[in-house]
Amino acid sequence: MPGSPAVAEMLSAPDRESIIRDSRAVTWHNVVVDGHRVNYAISGDGPPALFLHGWGLRPNGYREPIRRMGMAGCRVYAPAMPGFGGTPELPGEQRSFTGYAAWAGRFLDAIGESRVALVAGHSFGGGVSAAFVHDHPGRAGSLLLANAIGGPTWASSPHGIRTMTQRPAWDWGRYFGTDPFHSAHLMRVLPALLEDFIPNLMRNPLGMFRTGDFIRRADLLMEIRAIARRRTPVLVAWSDRDRLVPRSVFDEMRQAAGVDGVVVNGSHSWLIGDPEAFGELAIHALVDSGALTVRPSLSVA
Rounded to whole angstroms, how far apart are CA atoms 4 and 54? Predict the structure, then answer.
């Protein structure tokens, strides 16, 4: 991964035996949270971890990233968050990053996990992940943010700074629709996105856009700074062809966390197209948390 020599070096000592165990399958389950049935995926074996999906999607489209995260040496739980994948929306007063973070805590309570070694989130799920780790001290060993929202700056120029709240909805839509075509793995990314986005849109279009409204106002830099002050390891990753979450957001978030960050090849949905690279980042985060002392190889598919 260009820009991430430390990750490559960290993964240079394979331990094939640790990956041979059958942690490869992704299985589907349901649990009751707030009186509603929630579908979730499980993969892997080891210390528990939580994966939170992006806006408009659900865990289905992330099967390979979830599987690779499980192969990294943890047991991943990936729920369909409220408003997506058949999980009912949160009430209006709870429709915020704080509200979603509280819901994630109730989900973990429902499956009997008081603490996880890693919380990982993509895009919108990254924002929720950051809020969860901030709002629930002691419940997460590390945080992995993949193209996460949470920085307030859309663009800067000699004429000043334009915030994400100033970004028009049509601009979001333009890049959301074209993002898969910026991926080197188009035929892997596009079917996965369509598999999730269309059912969500048909089931609850208003709910999706109600969630999208508060996403536009995301500013989680204070929370990320507080997480860093607690010495909770944070890994911030971004892809070089992402036009949905701009470089300015990545820079703000990595600086708030006090880390260099990792730049990978790909579009906004790079982890669907390149799940192996995402699995490597999961190993990095698990090692940082102390949950892994052996660095497994992901070369066995």
Answer: 23
pLDDT 10s digits, 97-155:
999 999 999 999 999 999 999 999 999 999 999 999 999 999 999 999 999 999 877 55
297 within a domain of the structure (yes/no): no
Give residue 244's domain range: 5-289
Q: Is residue 300 part of a domain?
A: no
CA distances from 124 to 46, 91, 100, 151, 209 (A): 26, 18, 10, 12, 13
Contact between 62 and 88 under an 8 Å Cβ cutoff? The reply is: no
Q: Which two tokens stand for residue 128?
A: 């929720």
> What digits encode the pLDDT tens for the residues 60-79?
999 999 999 999 999 999 99
Number of domains in the chain: 1
- 3-class SS shares of the chain: helix, strand, coil, % to 5: 45, 20, 35
Q: Residue 175's domain is classified under what CATH number?
A: 3.40.50.1820
98 class by beta-carbon count within 10 Å (0-12 exposed, 13-18 middle, 19+ buried): middle
